[in-house]
Design a protein that fits this description.
Helix content: 10-25%
Distance between the termini: 16 Å
Strand content: 25-35%
CATH class of the largest domain: Mainly Beta
Radius of gyration: 18 Å
Order of helices and strands: HHHHHEEEEEEEEEEE
Shape: globular
Strand order of the largest sheet: 4-3-5-6-11-7-8-9-10
Oligomer: single chain
Structural class: alpha+beta
Largest sheet: 9 strands, mixed
Number of helices: 5
CATH topology of the largest domain: Umud Fragment, subunit A
Number of strands: 11
């Protein structure tokens, strides 16, 4: 998860106050803090200026942690963050292979150990522009918590048959799943719940080179 809520609280800011500085509603701040909506790049840059920290720190990728004072200013002292673990990044999934088969793993990405449990999370590189409405562009990395069920409306990795793996918002309709893209160029897909395997829920989005 990102560190937006931590930064806001340590700077004695309310969600309303932060929203005013960003030019957005309190509800949007809440969604960014809980990870329900990924931080857009322009908002992320504004947050870097407001809190005087790097984008990597806000996104939970930095290897050092600022020591904050409870004021509107941020101290420049640093200390080591908790231990990191390597979370596998998978690329294109090959037919018939499990998601985390060796053939699918491209690399391991250091991630704070407190944020993930070993063997329960993986990163996936996004292909295509189906989810740009949720600020998930092509080339982004999504951190996925492996779980066989998600709540209706959550974004998940879904496997159809042996070959197709999709990133979509999942909604339930009787005995079917509606797989909803957030790009209006594409139509939702309706599939039988028995024909789709929910691999896991997206809990974080990383935009590379920010």
């Amino acid at each position: 998860m990102n560190r937006l809520k931590e930064l806001r609280q340590l700077n004695n800011m309310t969600q309303d106050e932060l929203g005013e500085r960003l030019g957005i509603q309190k509800a949007a701040v809440s969604k960014y803090e809980t990870g329900r909506v990924a931080l857009p790049p322009d908002t992320l840059m504004k947050l870097c200026d407001i809190f005087s920290v790097s984008a990597d720190y806000i996104l939970g990728r930095d290897k050092v942690t600022p020591l904050f004072k409870k004021s509107r200013s941020v101290s420049l002292s640093y200390t080591s963050i908790p231990e990191t673990v390597g979370v596998p990044l998978i690329g294109r999934v090959h037919a018939g292979l499990p998601i985390l088969a060796d053939e699918n793993i491209m690399e391991y990405i250091p991630t704070p150990a407190d944020d993930v449990a070993v063997d329960e999370y993986f990163y996936m590189e996004v292909e295509g522009d189906c989810m740009i409405g949720d600020f998930i562009p092509e080339g982004a990395l999504v951190l996925v918590r492996m779980q066989p069920m998600v709540e209706s409306g959550q974004i998940a990795v879904v496997r159809l048959g042996d070959e197709e793996v999709l990133l979509r918002r999942v909604k339930r309709l009787d005995k079917h799943l509606v797989l909803v893209p957030s790009n209006p160029k594409y139509e939702p897909m309706i599939v039988s719940a028995n024909a789709a395997q929910i691999v896991g829920r997206v809990v974080e989005v990383r935009i590379r080179n920010i």
